[in-house]
Amino acid sequence: MAKEVKTIGVLTSGGDAPGMNVAIRAVVRTACHKGLKVKGVMRGYAGLLQEEIIDKDSASVSSIIYRGGTVLNTARCEEFVTPEGQKKGADICHKHNIDGMVVIGGDGSFRGAGKLAELGINTIGVPGTIDLDIACTDYTIGFDTAINTAMQAIDKVVDTSASHERCSIIEVMGRNAGYIALWCGIANGAEEILLPERWNGNEQEVVNRVLECRKKGKKHCIIINAEGIGHSTSMARRVEAATGIETRATILGHMQRGGSPTCRDRMFASIMGARAVQLLLEGKSNRLVAYKHGEFVDFDIQEALQMKKDISEEQYEISKLLVR
User: Fold this and answer.
1) I want to staple 141 with a disulfide (CB 3.0 to 4.6 A). Which of 18, 19, 160, 215 is the partner?
2) Do 157 and 250 meet the contact criterion of CB atoms below 8 Å apart?
3) Which residues of 274-297 are buried (b: 16+ CB within 10 A; e: fewer)?
4) What is the pTM of this model?
5) Is 131 marked active-site?
6) Which of these is catalytic: 16, 99, 131, 133?
7) pLDDT, tens digit, for every residue of 170-210?
8) pLDDT over 60 at 242, yes or no
């Protein structure tokens, strides 16, 4: 059994995601309600190593629930990957009387959280990433906002693509995970969806799809391309050369990480943040909050990191069916 927690820290690490502020708010207010002291760690593990640590109370997280990004800021930290950096981080936690830490982020953030747990800091992870690529959970904070932002942007590109009777290759984020591409491809009625989990590198299939659409009388064609495949601009040039159809690339980029979080992201982030504090109060450590099969649960961090995740075959087959 891990030791009793009296002061907790909260940090956000890795890529930002809409809803992180909601999770921060839930952590701070739940902890304060339970009589715990709370410290906010600025700029993730980088800020921890620089001792950028501030006191937090309920008032300090007022009016952040609707804001995108993270008020604690975030940064990558190569030093924390090293054993020396990890020990330094744990020592700084002890120095500031932080005996519990809530880490909001993705896989890389949770590896760091696991190391802090090994060094005696009770640590709980909360999944915050637009990529939906954490294997143990069916939901990650920020995904819902990101797909809605991308969907609305793609709708606008469709308007101009139709007006000019052109093909548009629209690149969405997701790193090496195709969840945003799949969801937007279905939701926006794309003629082709390119996913890193299924991509065979054969651009001729894309060319054939564009030609098939034109043969059927469609005056425009939308191709959703996942970030993990990328090269949308050069792909557009090659498709245009092969088909004779004007083709343009649009890379949505980091706009998908911003914006006011949706109701779903606010709800899930609130529950996950509160659940993280409750786990610490129960003496738990090295756990990751997750949403699985309709319930909020938690997993051992190392066990969670070893899990594998893939695109739903049913959803993928439906996406292929609907573009015929």
Assistant:
1) 19
2) yes
3) bbbbbbbbeebbbbbbbbeeeeee
4) 0.94
5) yes
6) 131
7) 999 998 999 999 999 999 999 999 999 999 999 999 999 99
8) yes
